[in-house]
Amino acid sequence: MSPCEPAERIGVVGLGLMGTALAERLMMQGFGVAVWNRTRSKADALLGMGAVWSENPLAECRRVLVCLYSTDVVETVLGGFRGALLPGQVVVDMTTGEPERMALLGVELGRMGIRYLDAPISGSSQQVRDGEATVMVGGDRDVFEACVDLWVSLGRKVFHVGPCGSAARMKLISNLVLGLNRAVLAEGLAFAEALGVPPGAALEVMTGSNAYSRAMDVKGRKMVERDFSSHARLSQHLKDLQLILAEAAGVGMQLPLTQVHRRLLEEAEAAGLGELDNSAIIEVLRLPGRQPRS
Questions:
Q1: Which of 130, 135, 140, 152 is deepest in the core (most CB within 10 A)?
Q2: Do domains 9-163 and 170-284 have the same CATH topology?
Q3: Are 10 and 31 in contact (CB under 8 A)?
């Protein structure tokens, strides 16, 4: 599918790491972009790249991507823009949020003639910029198909997974496994250091062995080099784990490995690592005060 007509402008609401990456990717793919964020200064770099500021993208754009911290924030922001919503408009909620509330939001907006999709991204902000992320979409199939030009521009793989709320559930499932892969990699590299094995060498061997996971490609060098410049904040994944555990409790599951993971991230956040990349989890797994063997 070819990109949308050049005259169409896609709205992007929320300019955190992921929202900013989505806006950049859309512009790379030839879309016009109108952006809004509660803190306007976060839009400065995007405006310099050709985006335009909008006081209300929902009043100006037929299709709007919403990428915010939580479902609470989505409901608050959309509530402030509600008077601008128009029948036939498509709202694509890319927030990692609460599945049941997202499904109810779809029903509520549907009564107003608004077509709502939940479409969280699996991948870091850098993977989004590179077109290497995976997009999961929940909502009416015809609305999904009408936005195929967006999906092929934003991700390498795209899945329609069911009605509204389905993609939010799938994102939590994916994040559970992805996060544990990252945590296990961090523990393995910390173990290597403690045994006197250069972590770079350990990473190379594991990447070529049955221990491999894609987390090694995305986070391995960051852990080895202690480069924690943020592609996805540690505190954001802790929020996701809290959602995962709440959903699990609702169906009578305990998820013991995820509970351990949450405790590690809570320790990292208490140590002041919350705003760093989630690869910084390795810092709470390294032995305190222990220098690697020479």
A1: 135
A2: no
A3: yes
Which helix (H) or strand (E) segment holds residue 209: the answer is: none
Band (pLDDT 50/70/90 cuts) for residue 182 is very high
Residue 195: CB atoms within 10 Å:
10
Look at residue 292 in the predicted model and tell me its pLDDT: 41
Report helix angle 214-225 to 199-207, nearest 10.
Answer: 170
Question: Could you tell me the pTM of the whole model?
Answer: 0.90
User: In the prediction, which pLDDT does 294 show?
Assistant: 39
pLDDT band at 83 (very low <50, low <70, confident <90, very high): confident
**What are 36's strand-pairing partners?**
13
**Helical residues (DSSP H) of the chain, grouped into ranges:** 17-28, 44-48, 57-60, 71-81, 99-111, 125-129, 141-146, 148-154, 166-194, 199-207, 214-225, 234-250, 256-270
Let me know if domain 170-284 sits in CATH 3.60.20.30. Answer: no
